[in-house]
Design goal:
Helix 1 links the parallel strand 1 and strand 2. The longest helix has 22 residues. The chain folds into three domains: 292 residues, FAD/NAD(P)-binding domain (3-Layer(bba) Sandwich); 103 residues, Flavocytochrome C3, Chain A, domain 1 (Alpha-Beta Complex); 69 residues, no CATH class. It is of the alpha/beta class and 491 residues long. Strands 1, 2, 5, 6, 7, 8, 17 and 19 form an eight-stranded mixed β-sheet that branches. Strands 11-15-14-13 form a four-stranded antiparallel β-sheet, with helices on one face. Strands 10-16-18 form a three-stranded mixed β-sheet, with helices on one face. The N and C termini lie far apart (60 Å). It is built from 15 helices and 21 strands. The protein binds flavin-adenine dinucleotide.
């Protein structure tokens, strides 16, 4: 085992949140260490790289849009649990954060007059979503941040899976990995989401909720895990499990609509915003339509979009790989686990309440998303909060220099496919009290969950998944009401 020097900022995660914090901190003169999970094969290992639709950000020169309007749309989607003060603060910093990203080399799609192109997605009342490469926004954000990180001399990044935190007294000072310990005056968890709690998801393989389990083990407040956003249009392939391609909501923003197996419009009479209703509403309507027609999927009709392949190259590639052409064929889709709205509670600087420990990006719960994230608000949140953590790290005190102790999630773990199937059955789009009682009992049953020490990195992920599943099921059971259905949607 090797022990590295103490960095000013230790970042766990190399997606948009982690790398934004890392690059900004390096630009402020700090030393930075970034750790990330090794990728499997050539598939990207961050959700960031897969993001399609774009970044929701107000154009300050647009008379039809304003921060107030963006806040109102965010509350319209997320419901009463959205923290309006936090939301206003984060969204107001959005335009400057995007400018910073552009200054680091990110190239977004532009109109002939040079202004950024903007589109609409579900829940937005104006076109404010900027995008890159048509529907390859995340790939461009990841490329630009990775390239920027490589040019910062005080920043080093290496693959290593953090499986425990290290604390000196009550202060978190580092993480433990199989390759050695890493220390930082500030420790940032930027580990992304937990889509692999479910049998099929849009998330990359490493999205197993590690940061949540680590922070919870250290005593951080972990809240609103029950609010998992199921994206209504994940590409359906019979029998497939694990990561599945997403059909971006921006496709519906350009005019596509959902039809059931009988050809009837899925969203007719369901919601005033029709196919662009908030995601939870559309995901429930899709589930209803599948049950009504006894079909395994519904269909997205994008045939009316002119040059769909040019506007949505990523989607087109995925659909073609399934043997279909989006210009002429209906695209089979189902809801899939997509985004974790809750997570590790932070303040508006990214601090968790555990000394030394910060969280940003999908792992964090700032109050922006409430019960249902507004489309394309997450990249923006990760950018803004990443920048804020970089600022906070500049005033962190030196480490105390005492002995360190390891803080790790419990060993207990369930076999992954069985865990995912149980979560999908009982904690998916539709939940019942009986189903959730059954799930919590199963997750407490020693015949289902073995208490065995983790040896491999896969074991450690399974332990994390089990810990987060237990927490999520408990919080879902405690939440008896459906939060977003009661929200009045403005015209
Ligand atoms: C298919 C898809 C499309 C999306 N489209 C959009 C969109 O258009 N607009 C939008 O705003 N949002 C979108 N989202 C959501 C958005 O992409 C994510 O919420 C965001 O990218 C999360 O960024 P992050 O930095 O928090 O995490 P990620 O980008 O997921 O990065 C997590 C990092 O943490 C590392 N990590 C995890 N655990 C450990 C560990 N134990 N040790 C070391 N490293 C670890 C991973 O290796 C990775 O480097 C989309 C998501 C998906 C999956």
């Amino acid at each position: 085992m090797t022990t590295t020097a103490v960095a000013d900022l230790l970042v766990v995660g190399a997606g948009v949140a982690g790398l934004t914090a890392a690059v900004a901190a390096a630009d402020a003169g700090l030393t930075v260490t970034v750790l990330f999970k090794p990728s499997t094969g050539s598939a990207p290992s961050t959700s960031t790289a897969y993001a399609q639709g774009g970044i929701a950000v107000v154009d300050p020169s647009d008379p039809d849009d304003s921060i107030d309007r963006h806040v109102a749309d965010t509350v319209g989607a997320g419901g009463p649990l959205v923290d309006v003060v936090a939301t206003r603060s984060i969204l107001a910093d959005g335009p400057a954060a995007v400018d910073r990203l552009i200054s680091w080399g990110a190239a977004f799609d532009r109109r002939p007059d040079g202004r950024l192109k903007r589109t609409r997605e579900g829940g937005h009342t104006v076109s404010r979503i900027i995008h890159a490469g048509g529907d390859a926004t995340g790939a461009e954000v990841q490329r630009a941040l990775t390239a920027a990180a490589k040019t910062r001399p005080t920043l080093t990044a290496r693959p290593a899976q953090a499986y425990a935190l290290l604390a000196d007294g009550d202060r978190v000072v580092g993480v433990r990995t199989a390759e050695g310990d890493a220390f930082g005056r500030t420790v940032l968890l930027a580990t992304g989401g937990a889509g692999h709690l479910f049998s099929s998801t849009t998330n990359p393989l490493g999205a197993t909720g590690d940061g949540i389990a680590l922070a919870e083990a250290a005593g951080a407040d972990v809240r609103e895990l029950e609010f998992v956003q199921f994206h209504p249009t994940m590409l359906y392939t019979p029998g497939a499990r694990g990561r599945r391609p997403l059909i971006s909501e921006a496709v519906r923003g350009e005019g596509a609509h959902l039809v059931d197996a009988n050809g009837d419009a899925v969203m007719d009479g369901v919601h005033p915003m029709g196919d662009l209703a908030p995601r939870d509403v559309v995901a429930r309507a899709v589930t209803d339509a599948m049950e009504r027609t006894a079909a395994p999927c519904v269909y997205l009709d994008a045939t009316m979009i002119p040059d769909v392949a040019d506007r949505f190259p990523t989607v087109t590639e995925a659909v073609r790989a399934a043997g279909l052409d989006p210009q002429t064929d209906l695209i089979p889709v189902v809801p899939g686990a997509h985004y974790l709205c809750g997570g590790v509670v932070t303040d508006l600087h990214g601090a968790t309440g555990v000394p030394g420990l910060y969280a940003a990006g999908e792992v964090a719960r700032t109050g922006l998303h409430g019960a249902n994230r507004l489309a394309s608000n997450s990249l923006l949140e990760a950018l803004v909060m990443g920048l804020r953590v970089a600022t906070a790290a500049q005033t962190a005190p030196a480490l105390p220099g005492g002995p360190v102790r390891e803080i790790a999630p419990p060993h207990a773990r369930a076999e992954r496919d069985a865990l995912q199937d149980a979560m999908t059955r009982s904690c998916g789009v539709r939940r019942t009290v009986d189903g959730l009682f059954g799930l919590t009992a199963l997750l407490a049953d020693p015949a289902f969950v073995a208490d065995a020490p983790a040896v491999s990195s896969r074991d450690r992920e399974d332990a994390v998944l089990t810990a987060v599943a237990r927490r999520m099921a408990g919080q879902a059971l405690a939440r008896q009401e459906s939060v977003t259905e009661v929200v009045e949607v403005r015209p």
